[in-house]
Amino acid sequence: MPQGHGQRHGYGLRARDYEFMLDLTIAVLKHDDPESLWHLVSARLVDVLGLNTVVFAAIDLHAFRGEAQGWAPRALGQGVNEVVQRRVRQHHPLVSYLASREHRPVIVRELTDSWRDSAWYSEARRDFGTTQQLGIPLPGADGPQGGLVLGRAGDFSDHDLAFAARIQPLLTAADRHIRELRRLREAAPLTVPGRPFPPRHDLTPRELTVLGLLAEGLTADGIARRLAISPHTVNRHLEKVYRKLGTNNRVSTVMTAKREGIVP
User: Fold this and answer.
1) What's the pLDDT at 205?
2) Domain ranges of the chain
3) Prediction pTM value
4) Cα distance between residue 42 and residue 169, in whole Å
5) CATH code for 5-175?
6) Most buried among 7, 192, 196, 210, by the most CB within 10 A?
């Protein structure tokens, strides 16, 4: 790591930056719809950083393709997938960077000397008024590499880059939270018309996610790795789950959750 790199990414963060992180964390943990969570996150990023666009992309260079969702700040629909596919074919520098499993947030001008002379720049400026982009990798498991591409009119500052580095773990955890919520929803018992939904015992979306992974046999360490949080945080969630379900160990908790249809 170049000398001074860590210092630059701690550059000038303010109290309101940390307030934003706390507010975003609470909003993500309380939100239980995985299909709209990235929209919630992107709307807040648009406001705090003055963005034109936020694109969440999953890049698979081995298959030479990418999938994406985007907001500007409203949802861009399926058109953004076509844009990302085109960027993969055009070898956009951020596509290669995100797919290479690099971890540092980066401004596109750091990756190329020809940004303003490129088709990528012309199209982004024409379609969204974007003149600069910032990529935030979201390190994950094997498979397509995820990342956020933030675009806006005007350059990104050292403060913006420091802010991106500081919120990167939160965004990575949000990505894994969304994936697990979606997987849990797909695996949940099907509801029968006219029959009420299974009771949730006031479990939060995060507690449901932890409970779902517990039911799959993961340990606290395994759940922590899957969700990009600490084992201590997992155990705090489990204590609340035990209390709400009236249990005191993982076996009885999983049995109760399965009996009541909370998990498959």
Assistant:
1) 83
2) 5-175, 205-259
3) 0.73
4) 15
5) 3.30.450.40
6) 210
